[in-house]
Design goal:
Helix content is about 40%, strand content about 20%. The protein is of the alpha+beta class. The structure holds ligand BES and zinc ion. Zinc ion binds near residues 306, 310 and 329. Keywords: Cytoplasm, Hydrolase, Metal-binding, Metalloprotease, Protease, Zinc.
């Protein structure tokens, strides 16, 4: 009995789920979902079918045809990474119905009390399923090797509305009949203050792309297939987001030119509350975004370009499991930069390659004692994907794809990419499948590029590309001069926006003379920057340099946003910096802010603190 995926209990010899029909009753008072999941398999099966779950309590498992109970067992001790295995004994069925409830600590869900929202009057809940959290919402074969279509009937308070990574069908009154299996019971299901929202997802997706959000939502049209959603009370956020993302349709068109038809019909954007743990999440038809990307410059569009690019690389062609995550993120980083190049110009794209290069070399330092994490294809047996999340799959993956482009030339590579996507769309593949396709379509490529070194080797291959652009080189040399006590002049930084500052700050030594750090901030007001990338880069430097004047600002920041891109470096800097004051601050802030973070972010900060404190 071999598993198909190190992060799932799904067995290779078992039929995979092809469709899931969910009935969900969302109880905001208890932060619990009472649900039923009807799983349809690719073929009838006799034997013990393994499913993934996390913190889910099963009420009954039924044969949907006869409504007779099916025998099942729930493993006694959850695996710390994979969760709890559910084994259902099937005798020739091709579908099964599980009636269950989630737990308030479900790792995919963040339940926000009214006070944690913009409006302060209505609760909010949203999901983040990647990499392995869908199993905390419904029992399933939670591996991207499986591709599912789904239907959802969602029962929510009438004052709220729902969005999903799916087509919205209708909003209507609850019907008594629907409640028959549910623990919630018909009186709750049909209570006066409840409505039902129905969704269908017709395109087959890996379970990690299952997504919803429920709150008091409002939207604005920004293009023929794009709406921007925010909390309806957050009118300023909605205004700013509509402006920021006005160019989305143009990007979709460019994406179609480069990579083929857009297969998902709609491309809507949901701007989440500040606790959203990622910059963006490529949920199909409804991308999720942190509000921190809205800052009135090019970077918001860039995150959208990235999530849009996943519509081809990641969502159409999907990594078969997380050991091949670079197939998702490396290709998407490449595709993102191709879109950015067309809509924002080659300079911007090159600067992004530079920032990425810096990120990649930093990761090599971070993983110097864990070289497995520097490989594109890597062994994740016993490894929690949230713990090893890094820039490596993005930037080394980008470098590999770009290396192939440089070898064959752009025109030929563009044709190859289109063919690659057309060949494997709606499939989940591994690194070897990609390499075989590459060798078959670009004969002799393995003689020009050491494909094995790139995909299985550690570190950064010699034929990677460190960008050269005047602005990039200038910034790096200015950063070097800082060590010798020289600050960049007003003239030198006159044209800089956030990304230039970010590159500059990240190229400074990890620790500097405190007086010099403060002088830099006095002149350029970096700690107060509205651009969080700049602010965090600066605060990180300030913490490591033991400039304790900034601890107040660090605390404020850590309590205002839950995006892990900011939490990780700040908590790491605090925990790693020798002083007890820093460690103390890390512990105290986490204790106070913990409840405001998404469960995934809580787990990540916990593991940072336990490593150093
Ligand atoms: N799919 C990722 C986010 C993700 C990765 C969630 C792994 C869970 C596990 C998304 O496409 C992404 O890469 N987001 C980036 C933004 C992007 C511009 C690089 C992020 O959140 O920073
Ligand atoms: Zn991505």
């Amino acid at each position: 009995m071999a598993p198909i995926d190190p992060h799932s209990f799904t067995q290779v010899s078992h039929p995979l789920t092809t469709h899931v029909a969910l009935s969900l009753y969302l109880d905001f008072n208890t932060s619990i979902i009472h649900g039923s999941a009807l799983l349809s398999l690719s073929s009838a099966f006799s034997g013990n079918l393994s499913l993934d779950s996390r913190c889910i309590s099963i009420d009954t498992v039924l044969d949907p045809q006869t409504l007779e109970p099916l025998p099942y067992t729930v493993s006694a001790n959850p695996d710390p990474i994979r969760g709890t295995e559910i084994v259902v004994a099937l005798s020739g069925q091709s579908s099964l119905l599980l009636v269950y409830s989630t737990s308030p600590s479900a790792s995919a869900l963040q339940w926000l009390s009214p006070l944690q929202t913009f409006s302060k009057t209505h609760p909010y809940v949203y999901t983040q399923c990647q990499a392995i959290h869908a199993r905390s919402i419904f029992p399933c074969q939670d591996t991207p090797a499986a591709r599912i279509r789904y239907d959802v009937v969602m029962n929510i308070p009438a004052s709220l509305s729902a969005v999903m990574s799916a087509r919205h069908v209708r909003r209507r009154l609850p019907v008594l009949e629907e409640a028959k299996h549910l623990q919630a019971g018909s009186s709750l299901w049909c209570a006066e203050d409840r409505v039902v929202e129905e969704f269908v997802m017709e395109q087959p997706i890996p379970p990690y792309l299952f997504a919803f959000a429920v709150g008091e939502l409002g939207f604005r049209e920004v293009g023929p297939r794009t709406r921007v959603y925010t909390e309806s009370a957050a009118t300023e956020v909605l205004d700013a987001a509509a402006l920021e993302f006005a160019g989305t349709e143009e990007m979709i068109r460019q994406g179609e030119k480069l990579f083929g038809d857009y297969e998902w019909e709609r491309f809507d954007l949901l701007v989440l509350p500040p606790s959203f743990p990622y910059g963006g999440m490529e949920n199909p038809r409804m991308v999720f975004l942190t509000p921190t990307v809205i800052k009135g410059d090019a970077s918001g569009a860039q995150v959208v370009a990235h999530e849009l690019a996943h519509s081809w690389t990641g969502n159409l062609i999907t990594n078969i499991n997380n050991e091949h995550f670079w197939l998702n993120e490396g290709f998407t980083t490449y595709a993102e930069r191709r879109i950015v190049e067309v809509v924002q110009g080659a300079d911007r794209a090159t600067l992004n390659i530079g920032i990425g290069w810096r990120g990649l070399t930093d990761e090599m330092e971070r993983f110097k004692d864990n070289l497995e994490c520097t490989k594109l294809k890597n062994n994740q047996e016993g490894v929690d994907p949230d713990d090893v999340y890094s820039q490596v799959p993005y930037e080394k993956g980008f470098q590999f794809v770009f290396r192939i482009e440089r070898q064959v030339g752009r025109t030929a590579f563009d044709d190859f990419l289109k063919k690659y996507i057309a060949t494997f769309k709606f499939k989940s593949i591994d690194t070897d499948t990609f390499l075989e396709f590459l060798k078959a379509n670009i004969p002799g490529i393995e003689k020009e590029i050491n494909l094995q070194l790139w995909t299985e080797g550690v570190g950064i291959p010699e034929d990677a590309y460190e960008p050269v652009s005047t602005i990039y080189t200038k910034i790096i040399s200015l950063a070097k001069e800082f060590k010798e006590g020289k600050m960049p002049s007003e003239d030198e930084v006159a044209e800089w926006n956030g990304q230039e500052w970010e590159l500059y700050l990240e190229n400074l030594p990890k620790t500097c003379e405190p007086s010099q750090v403060m002088a830099l901030d006095k002149r350029y007001k970096l700690a107060e920057s509205k651009d969080y990338e700049v602010k965090v880069s600066f605060l990180q430097l300030a913490i490591s340099s033991k400039c304790r004047e900034y601890h107040g600002e660090v605390e404020k920041m850590l309590k205002a946003v839950g995006r892990m891109k900011y939490l990780r470096p700040l908590f790491t800097a605090l925990a790693q910096t020798g002083g007890t004051e820093e460690k103390q601050l890390a512990k105290q802030v986490f204790a106070e802010a913990r409840e405001t973070y998404h469960p995934i972010a809580q787990g990540v900060v916990e593991s940072i603190l336990s490593k150093y404190i």
